[in-house]
Structures are given as C-alpha cells and as structure tokens.
Amino acid sequence: MLSQTCILLFCFFFNSLFTIFAATSFLNLTLPHQHPNPEAVVQQVQRRVNDSISRRILINGKSQCLTGNPIDDCWRCDPSWAANRQRLADCAIGFGQSALGGKGGRYYVITDSSDHDTVNPTPGTLRHAVIQDEPLWIIFQSNMVIKLKHELIFNSYKTIDGRGANVQITGNGCITLQYISNVIIHNVHVYNCQPSGNTDIRSSPTHFGRRGRSDGDGISIFSSRNIWIDHCALSHCTDGLVDAIMGSTAITISNSYFSHHDEVMLLGHDDRYLPDSGMQVTIAFNHFGEGLVQRMPRCRRGYIHVVNNDFSEWKMYAIGGSANPTINSQGNRYTAPTDPNAKEVTKRVDTDEGQWSDWNWRTDGDVLVNGAFFVPSGEGLSMQYAKASSVDPKSAGLIDQLTMNAGVIGGPRDNSMNIQYGGGTTTGPISTGGGVGGSSGDEGDFFGMIFGSGAAQTQSSPTTTMFLSLLIILILYLTTNHSGLLSLLL
Question: Which pathway does it operate in (predicted)?
Fold first, then answer.
C-alpha cells in the first residue's frame, strides 16, 4: 500500500512540474512584473506615434505645439501644465508606461541644494525628499546644482520634476534605484558621477545601512520596476550613464540626450543571470550624440524595443548584446562614423555566428546613413513579428521632428554648458565589489549592492519554492520509510 502511495506521489509531482514548466515556457515569464505579450506593447507604441503624427499633419499651421511626439504632445500643449504637473504621469509610453511616480501625492519643493549628511538629511534637500515612504511629486524652487556626497538612494513612488528650473545632479554615486518601483525622473542634467561609498546611507525614514563602493553610474536601476526616465541629459560619468540590471523590468527611457561617454547603457547584469530574461525596456525619441563610443544599449537577455531614436555618433557600435536578447529596432536613424571599420550598427559580444544566428534582432523602417548597416538575425520578419509589422512605423522619416526636444527642456538640451567634468570619459569598469558590483563585466558580484542589513533580498518564485519543498519532503519520506524503493527508482 505504501509503495503505491509513493508511486502516486511521484506521478503527481512530475505531472505538476511538467504542467507548470510548460505554462511558464509558453508565456515566457521569468519576472512577476514583466508583460506577457511584449509585441502588444510594441504595437501600442507604434499606434501612439502614428496617431500623434496624424494629428500634427491634420492641423499643421493651426498649432505650433504638436510635434508628433506622443509624450510631449500629451502635456506640452497645455499652457497651464505648471498648474497640473502630475498629468505628466499619464504620458509615458512603452514598457514603463505604468510608472506612477508620485502621482496622487503631495508636492515637495526642494529649497536647499546641499547634501551634507547621508544618514540624517536636511529637510528641503533632494536626499530628504527621495527617501520618504509616501508618494511625492518633487519640484525645485529655483535653478540649482546638487553635488552629491554619496549615492542618492530612492524610495518608491517618487517623481523628480525639473521643469521650470535648471537642475543639475552631479558628484559621488549619483542616482540609485534599488528594490523599488514607480519612479519618474524628468528634465534634469546628470553628469560627472564618480565612485564613492563605504559609508552609511539612509534609504527610508526608518532605515539606513552600510553601502559598499558604487560604480559611478548616472542612473543605476537594480532589481526595480516601473521606471520612466524622460527629458534628461546624461554625460561624463565614470561607469554607465544608465544601467538596468538584476531582474529590473517595465522601463522606458525617452526624450533624453546622451553625449561624451564610452559605455552608455547596460541592460542586464551578467549572461548567467537568468531572471534578466524578463527585462523589458523601451528606448524612444532619444538623441545619442557627440562623443559616444558604444552600448546604446548593450543588452543581455530580455526584450528591448528601440524606436525613433537619432544615433548621430558612435566609435565602435550602437547596439550590442549577448545571451540571446530580443532587439526590435524600428524607425531609428543610424549615422555611421567615417571609420570604415565601424559602419555596423550591431555587435554580438563575444559570440560566434553559429550561436547568435537564431537571436531575434530585427530592423524595421530604420534609416541607415553614411554606410551604416544593421545585421538582423533570427525570425526577423516572420511569424513572431507579423502582428507588429501590421502597424507601419510611419515616423521613420520624421526623426528630426520627433527628437527635436530630446534632453532637458528650457535651456541647453545636453550638458554642453560650462561644467567642470572631473570624471571624464572612461573605458572600463572601476567597481571594487561594493556598489553595483562589476555590472559592466562578466564576473561581478550579483549582490554587491545589498545593504548590510535590512535590504530586501532577491526572492525565489513561489513555483520554484513549492516544488523544491515537495521534492525535499518526498525524498525524506522515501528515505525514512522505503529506502529500497528509492534506490530502485534512482
């Protein structure tokens, strides 16, 4: 009787395991917050762009506001936008469109540009604002340069809204979004960010912890979701300008101006880190400008939609990847450098063609200038993209119009103002294992950014935990009561 019970338990276990794994494979879900159908998000972005372009064409000459850029046309056409700042939260597109930021929360006005104390920040400073537990819409009383002492650690549900002021964030560590959600960063300059750390930093009103050494990223996104970065100008940082790693997803990076940097954007921590397969990022309406070398972006795993950006300079390549990411490039303009050895837009990093030939890298409606060429691979225009390609990216010839306001609004769009750049452009990671832990390399510490105490730990999925528990119980039961049957089965 007991032998029959054991056999039934084994049958139940493996049948359940097969069912769950089959469902997971069908949906391709590796993160709890990734979109189950990324192609639907791609179609929605295309429709939003095409609708905005159509409205601009229909009433051209009657309105000086409409640009065809669906994000800008959503809020900039309202002459009273300053009285209704939080409408911005309804204007995002793509995978990060659900980022609420501080919507519904009170306004917090930054009146003090100092950053003297990372454990007990002064009220009125940006550091004091971003660690609060409540949703906040953060605005600035006047123009200011905020020189950070160490990393600026955010709490969830925050908007930095730099409209109406010239806001510059620089110094040590810069912006860190770790284990949080729903953040909007809008209309700020971020530059000259340098490594720092080995100190205590507060992350909420009730918790501070010891931080290791940061990499010097402009904006570091670590195991976070629902993030929207819009109309920022980023340059001259020690490591990446924007890095998203360790299972981050639901991200949109739009209308920003990138310049004067080597390794611009890293999406995915390490080829071996499987949860990054659920990373989904929209990169739209950005200008990748002067002084850039590579990684616009460099992707590991995940689904990356690169749409209607202007790539006016690179020295090595524009888009790179490893570990089989999906790259969907639509309606961009790629202008190759004069170097005859750097005409290719794409680069499969440290991978033989036999391995990457089935990776889904697609070019659709891209404008290739000065000998630039994009090497597609995988399913390309076949079944995977049939639905997406039914909505033509009409905007391919309107890149100038769609990216004309990329960067910070209301002043220099890029970081070409009179700034003293201490960090300059670097060519390699500087991490010593405490910050984002070698995020630019392949041998970095996965968990180098975790606080010494009190930090949320990376959790196993409920499915994995349940089946591991059942397996342990079953093995213990058989070992205790039916060691002979266990040896027979094994």
Answer: Glycan metabolism; pectin degradation; 2-dehydro-3-deoxy-D-gluconate from pectin: step 2/5
